[in-house]
User: Fold this.
Amino acid sequence: MSDVVGPVPAGEDPEAYDRLRRRILWAMPAGLYVLGSVAETDGVARHNLMTADWVQQVAVRPKLVAASIDATAVTCDLVGRGGVFSVSLLDREDRAVVRKFGKPVADVETDDDGRPVRMAGVTVVVAATGAPILASAACWLDCEVRQQLELGSHVLFVGEVVAAGGDPERPLLRMEDTRMNYGG
Assistant:
């Protein structure tokens, strides 16, 4: 049984075609971000940060950003229940930071009010929505979810930008700056 997903043109070897298709999808230029999320469970806020590359502005009026998140990820559950997410854009030199957020964050230090101040050993600030943002982010977006769409393996969340900050003139991290790939 083949693991090939999707249609294959007639006459093509399914395995070879699927490898080519995945390589092309991996080659599409993509940024690399840290997505923040928060939701309450039994009156206690749970925060998480996750490395993400499928994040893109999708509208100008209003300012909308879409983030596609694996349906089984902790972040997908938190964004779905909490209705908010943040996007931290990083300096190119911060490529090692994204590796800290490939799995759900277990190491969270909080202040007296229960807000996170460090996650996975990295200093964070809390956005107006409650979602965490990396303090070292070159720039950031704070978003409230306006729509969501289930897409099989992923859920697409469309959020309106309700706050933003930082310096977008700094050289920003992209997927090709790392040896990471995701997709296809």
Remarks:
- The chain has a mean pLDDT of 92.
- Helices lie at 14-27, 74-82, 95-98.
- The chain has two domains: 1-28, 31-177.
